[in-house]
Each structure stands twice: as C-alpha cells, then as structure tokens.
Write a structure and sequence with these properties.
Blueprint (H helix, E strand, L loop, with lengths): L13 H40 L1 H25 L9 H22 L2 H21 L5 H22 L4 H60 L2 H8 L5 E16 L1 H5 L4 H22 L2 E6 L2 E6 L8 H19 L8 E15 L8 E3 L1 H11 L6 E4 H7 L4 E10 L3 E9 L2
Parallel strand pairs: 4-6
Antiparallel strand pairs: 1-3, 1-4, 2-3, 4-5, 6-8, 7-8
Helix pairs in contact: 1-2, 2-3, 3-4, 3-5, 4-5, 4-6, 5-6, 6-7, 9-10, 10-12
Main location: membrane
GO biological process, one term: intracellular signal transduction
GO molecular function: adenylate cyclase activity; nucleotide binding
Length: 421
C-alpha cells in the first residue's frame, strides 16, 4: 500500500480508494450518529449543571441550549446516518463540526464573564475531542475541521470578546496540545483503517475464491453422484447404503468395439466412445434414469433410484431402444458396424457410496448380477430381459420367449427378448 502524502493518504487504485471511502463513510455515519446523540445529551446535562450551580448562567443560556442546540444536534443524529452512502460525507461532518463549535462559541458569548474566563476554552476542547473521537474523520478532513474550530475560537477572542492575555495564551496552548494529540491519533487511525481495509479485501477475495472452489467441488460431486446422495456426503455422512425393493438395472455392451479399437487411431477411438456415451448420458437424464458407471465400452444405468418410480422397467426399456437408435446413427461414421448387446433385470438392490477416495455411486445384489448376465448372454441388437422385468413391463413391449437357458453363475432361467411394439 502506497500513500501519496501524510496529509491525504490514498490508494493508487482509484476503484479501491472509492471502495475504502464508501466503507469508511458507512462506519463514520454510524459513529457520528452516536457522537451527535452524545453531544445532545452533553448539552442537556450542561444546562442542568448550570441550573444547579450557576443560576445566572442557566438563566442566560437555557433558551439557546434547549430551544436551538438540543433540537439541531438531535436532528443531526437522525439525519447523518441517512447520508452513509454519500461520497462527500466527510465534508458534511466537517460542516456539522464547525456548526457545533459555533453553537459552543455562542454559548460562551451568552455566558457570564466568570464562566467565560474559567471554562470557555473547555467548550472548545470538548469540540476538539469530539472531532477526533466521535466523527471518524480522515486525516485531511480532521485537519480542516480542527483548524476551523481553533480559528473560530481565536477570531472570537480577537474580535468578539477578548480575554486577558494570560488566560487567552493558556487556553490556546491547551487547545493546541489537545489538537496535536488528536491529529496524531487520527493519522495513525487512518493508517490502521487502510491496512485493515486491505486485509478485509484479501480475506474477502480468499473467501470468494474458496466459495468458487467449493462450488466447483460440489458441482463435480453432483456430476458423480445423485444430488440427494451428494448432499448427504456434504453434510458429513460417510457410509451411505439404501435398500430399494423394486428397481430395474440395464447393462449395455458395444459388440465389435474391441476389434474396431485395433484398427482406429486411439484419439479417434476415444472421441467416438465419448460421443456415444455422451448421447447415452443425455438420454438417461431425459428419461429420469441414474447413470451408475461405465467400464470400457460397457454402460450401466438404473431406474427407480435414488427416488422410487413405478415405471422403472419401462424407463429402462425406452433407454435401451434409444441407445440402439443412437448407435445406428453413429454407424454411418465408422468402418465397422457396431451393435449393442443389452440386458435388463428388475428387483431389489442396495445402492450407496463406500470408501474415502474417488467416490462412486454403485449397486449391489442379485438383480445387478442378473442384469449383467442378461447382457453377457444376450443377443447383439436385442434387449434381453428377465421374467420379472417382463412382468413389470406388461404391455409396453413385444416379447420373444427364449425358454430356459443356462445363465453363468445363476443356472437355468427363463428369459425374453423385448422389442418395440
């Protein structure tokens, strides 16, 4: 942070300086409100003290104190906070301070000689202290305000109501001492205020960056996991496992992809797979399915989780039909025709997230294993389903009964090929 001068420090960045001024004005307006409220109270107490110990003083000044000073200072306490966003608030505070000092000098003018000689300069000292302690003036404006206050007092001593020389010198010396101490304190206060302002901006920027990184992390987590599951992880839950009694699981594998990979450039191959799977992702999102994972050229989705739905089997069937249409369109751009082998099974599963690193939302249970076997024992270009899936699909598809076939790891099962009506 660089300052142009000690009298009027400022940041080199004009935008930053304006932000500091507005920030300081917000605080200055709040502080000035209490300052003028305190000044209002102080003048009211002064009137009471004069009434108790110096009736002559009270008789001369009570109308001025309670009829003018009290309401004007109270009004200032009400109005100035409304100007907290006014860029030139510091000049308003300087003017208000000079006005308050003018009231003090008029009060001196109305007071008896005894009070004026003994205590008159005390009122000016109160105004000086008030300038530095209550108004939160920046250095330059504090210099202007205090100079005008002292100048008013000296002018009154010279032209209005001269004091004996010794009393005048004594009063001015004390006022000058208090003023010097106040200016030094204001100078260091502004330096510290500017340092704190920069520190707060640094913290604000770090908080903003941290917030952005947090949003990125949350977005990445939401991209990997269902929203409800991601929120549970973010809330501190570490092991998530939910039981679903009726879902459908789809496995799909691209037949011919392995042989195609031997003849295609690696970059082109990955680009092709990315294009196909991206289209699958969009289709799954449109149908309300939850993508579980991809392994090589295999693709897995589920319907009916993490939110239960009644038509989970129909959604998976429509997903399968859409995937085959997508692959047919992509076949126009590849030298060797690709076909999908798709298997669907319906039933209960356990779904959740385990481990500490590289979170993945996964499924477990016989339904998952069966769906995988439906795919591996299926027919390219067909949708191979279990009896439970056929029952759940009902009249939404046409079926080809494959009879009882041997399913690896499971045994004999009666399965079906589901086709669009």
């Amino acid at each position: 942070m660089k300052f142009r001068s000690y009298l009027y420090p400022s940041f080199d960045d004009r935008t930053l300086e304006h932000r500091f001024i507005h920030d300081n004005n917000e605080k200055a307006a709040r502080q000035a409100r209490w300052g003028f409220a305190f000044g209002t109270f102080g003048y009211a107490v002064l009137g009471v003290i004069a009434y108790l110990i110096q009736p002559e003083m009270f008789e001369r000044t009570w109308r001025f104190i309670y009829g003018f000073i009290f309401p004007t200072h109270l009004m200032a306490a009400i109005v100035i906070p409304m100007l907290r966003r006014f860029f030139y608030l510091q000049w308003v505070l300087v003017s208000a301070n000079v006005f308050s000092n003018t009231c003090a000098i008029l009060l001196m003018h109305l007071s008896p000689d005894e009070f004026y000689i003994k205590y008159g300069y005390g009122l000016v000292i109160c105004i000086i202290i008030y300038t530095f302690a209550m108004l939160r003036l920046r250095t330059f404006f504090a210099v202007i305000a205090s100079t005008l206050v002292i100048g008013q007092y000296i002018a009154y001593l010279v032209f209005g109501r001269p004091l004996p020389l010794n009393d005048a010198v004594f009063g001015i010396a004390i006022i000058a001492f208090v003023n010097t101490a106040g200016l030094v304190s204001v100078f260091f206060f502004e330096q510290n205020a500017r340092i704190e302002f920069m520190q707060s901006r640094t913290i604000e920027e770090q908080s903003r960056q941290l917030g952005e990184e947090k949003k990125k992390s949350e977005a990445l987590l939401l991209n990997m996991l269902p929203e409800t599951v991601a929120n549970r992880l973010l809330s501190g839950e570490r092991t998530i496992a939910d039981y679903f009694d009726n879902v459908s699981v789809l496995f799909a594998d691209i037949e011919g992809f392995t042989s195609l990979s031997r003849r295609m450039n690696p970059h082109e191959l990955v680009a092709l797979l990315n294009r196909i799977f991206s289209l699958f992702d969009a289709l799954a999102q449109a149908l309300g399915l939850e993508k579980i994972k991809t392994i090589g050229d295999a693709y897995m989705v589920g319907a009916g989780l993490p939110h239960a739905v009644d038509n989970h089997a129909e959604r998976c069937f429509n997903m399968a039909l859409g995937m085959m249409r997508i692959l047919e369109e992509e076949n126009a751009a590849v030298p060797e025709k690709l076909r999908l082998r798709i298997g669907i099974a319906s039933g209960p599963v356990v779904a959740g997230v385990i481990g500490q690193n590289k979170f993945i939302y996964d499924l477990w249970g016989d339904t998952v294993n069966t769906a995988s076997r439906m795919e591996s024992s299926g027919v390219a270009g067909e949708i191979h389903i279990t009896g439970s899936t056929r029952e759940a699909l009902g009249d939404a598809a046409e079926y080809v009964d494959r009879g009882e076939i041997e399913i690896k790891g499971i045994g004999k099962m009666r399965t079906y090929l589901a086709r669009a009506i």
